[in-house]
Write a structure and sequence with these properties.
Layout: H1 3-14, H2 23-38, H3 52-62, H4 69-84
Helix pairs in contact: 1-4, 2-3, 2-4
Length: 85
Amino acid sequence: MALKELFEKAAADSKTLSEKPDNEMLLQLYSLYKQGTEGDVNTEPPSNPFDFVNKAKHEAWSNLKGKSKEAAMQEYVDLVTKLMG
């Protein structure tokens, strides 16, 4: 199966995990997904200082700057596979 197909399957599988991952893991999944689908962060950080959730998401995605889409996809697949046990 090609990486893109594995990535799409992992994205679907991530919605059916038996246990909800902790916030740190959710941020990791989010940032790897965004990097894998869109590449480097392409939005401005939230301007509302109290928008902690979107600020954390933006920061997590920004931390992956320079990582190739393919590498992010593979890490996402590996992480979801690990979470599925």
